[in-house]
Amino acid sequence: MNITFLGGTETVTGSKYLVETGKTRVLVDCGLFQGFKWLRERNWQPLPLDFASLDAVLLTHAHLDHSGYLPVLYHQGFRGPVYTHHATRDLCRILLADSGHLQEEDARFYAKHRIGRHRSPAPLYDRRTAEDCMALFRTVDFGEDVSIADIRFHLQPAGHILGAASIILEAEGRRVGFSGDVGRPDDIFMQPPQPLPELDLLLLESTYGNRRHPDTDPGRSWLMRSTARRRRAGRC
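Structure tokens predicted for MBL fold metallo-hydrolase:
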């Protein structure tokens, strides 16, 4: 099994991992690069990937740094399945369309005010393309085993947001875990992330890897912030 990092390296956005066996090629996550301009410009660079040979995309969750490049794949001809949890599909239906709409608005604004070096600014993709790519989605329940040729995988809850999952992938005698974004064990809205099984390799998201969350009661912290906002608004 070969794993190629196509994003999420030297930065925490643009997550894309190409997993290849002797028979199968899948992309785990398909995210946009976000943030600094030099990062966003990477969205326009062609991937070193033949989309016709890609068998499937597996999504951990809906945030755009993990899903927002899917309309680009669709625009460039990818028509394979996109496997994810049903809540992730429902969130992507909102987020991807909104992303395309905002890119169209930005392109019109740049053209009107002649901002940037392009005479005719264009969006990376438009709302229609984002909406059309939703036809590729195939939903998977947590714990459901799915096979794609010689690759097997399942999703397990990761907390974080609705539908967020870690992906446990098995092929060629190896078991690899893709953490996705992992929620906190004491979140007041989400269930805690499910512990990972024994793995041969773990690819772990590390956005907050250089700091510790405060050791406080999250319910009390949320209540204090809510009360402070209400006081500022003169409602209590």
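The chain has a mean pLDDT of 90.
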